[in-house]
Amino acid sequence: MSGLTALRTYAQTNPAKIPASILFSHTSTSLTIYDAFPKGIFHFLVLPRVQEPFTVSELSDLRTLLSGDKARAKQVISALNEDAKALRKEIEEEMLARYGFKWNVWTGFHAVPSMAHLHLHVLSDDLLSEKFKHKKHYNSFHPKLGFFLDVDEVLSWFEAEDSYYTAMAKLDTKHYESMLKEDLSCWRCNASMKTIPALKAHLQEEWDTQAKREKAKIERRRKMEEKGGDAATTE
Ligand SMILES: [Zn+2]
Ligand SMILES: [Zn+2]
Where is the composition biased (Basic and acidic residues) (predicted)? Predict the structure, then answer.
């Protein structure tokens, strides 16, 4: 199966027939699959299943969806967002069980997708992964560059003036792709990075620091609760 159209195929497949190594879960309207090239410790894709009245071409990507009926587009994105919220809860439980603390999970679309069929990226913000090797991969998730469109931002377009919606819905490829060429920088502290290996080492340090801080917080809370003090509830 071609990597570029795999999502489109899954979206039209009975979930029971999709291998468990690929499919994480499904609902009546969506599939959640493991990203084949995870860019964070946790990285999933939530995609709409192709079902009446929606068509394959309408669900091709964010641009095709937004260029069609506005109410239908909002319905699709809101449903994906609800399923992503439930997924984030599961990820957080897994973070606590496996790592002893939880950290942020991003939910958004790429302005210009690399695979056919609409999909919402749900990934942990550590960005620690063997799979990211190129600047454009990193920049496509960098939350301050604009290529990664948070789902809440996209949903806010529906509430804005029509002219604003129309402008945003264009999702001009050239405009967005230029963002991928920006110099490497840490999305947390803005420090500029010369190479991908340097960036990865820095992101590892950032995450280790966060892990230490969060675990210390949990430990402090636990100790206070042991003492029976109600100070623990004031944080
Ligand atoms: Zn993507
Ligand atoms: Zn940094």
Answer: 209-229
